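Q: what does this look like with zinc ion bound?
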Amino acid sequence: MTAQRIQIFDTTLRDGEQVPGCKLNREEKLVIARQLELLGVDVIEAGFPVSSPGDFTAVQSIAAQTKEATVCGLTRAVENDIRVAAEALKLARYPRIHTGIGTSELHVKYKLCSTQELVLERAIAAVKLAKSFVEDVEFYAEDAGRTDNVYLARVCEAVIKAGATVLNIPDTTGYCLPEEYGAKIRFLRENVKGIENVTLSTHCHNDLGLATANSIAGVVHGARQIECTINGVGERAGNTALEEVVMILRQHPYLNLDTNINTKLLTETSTMVSHMMGMPVQANKAIVGANAFSHSSGIHQDGVIKHRETYEIIDPREVGAPDSSIVLTARSGRAALGYRLQKIGYAFNKSVLDQAYASFLVLADRKKEVVDEDLHILVEQENLVA
Ligand code: KIV
Ligand code: ZN
């Protein structure tokens, strides 16, 4: 059975760029947008056009250069935002306006100083206005994660009637548990008239480290678009990491859900975004971290040397990463040392290897990592011969 397609909506250039100190210039945004298209994302959220003249021109240029992907611009449910976004997206082959408003009690009462009824009216008016410019209108119910499901369903039904094509259900504050978020998506599917004619989208933040799990729960319960960023960059603890959701779906074919992403470009895309944003990727980051495919403890190294899959669920080549590495530390065993010595040209018998291992441990206790150069010196100093 062919897997159902999950649309990947990348918001690295909009929500991701909201990271403090991560300003990208127009040229950098164009380069990243080109890479995202190569990667195979379905939607590029290029920016928030009304926010600054620079963001407006960046969205305009990305709209003009992008051939296959939909190009999206964010707005609030504010007339001028929508008009400006429509202008910025004029040259896009597939333009989308992403408009919305806060729907949780906290947002309605304290941020908008409004009422549920007035918010509903603003949502409808925003979608209608956006629809007068473009066919493809996505509506976000900000803080949907903490919005009462019955009110959320009313808002969703109303904006579908007004012409929305995609409904974004953001867990803006990263509050939900996966069961809760999945149940919210299921509730909307079961209770909103016309929902079968639109795409439900997840947009999860990582404040509790649950963004990826929540996004997966969302698609398992019927969402068909995931909003995410490269390396999970974004405000506070960030957004759902694109590389994680893509590889989870790829690694679990029984879910029967897949994306259009060329996974072999994940590592180079991660490196590009990290360098341009000046945001290093943590070494133990899933999929793209420097240690994602390196093994340093003796037990694991022994297993991987015998059969890679004993401790690796992904072939590094699948994500464009260099081969798995066996890192030599004081926790490494004889098997790893023998393997690395052999790789650099020394095939020792057991007793010589035992001798090498004893000297190696002394060295490894002093150094964090023993590299090939150290091994050559060790062999020479100890006078080891095959
Ligand atoms: O997190 C959020 O709610 C957002 C919306 C503006 C889509 O980023
Ligand atoms: Zn967000």
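Residues 230 and 273 are 7 Å apart (CA to CA). Residues 350-366 form the longest helix (17 residues).
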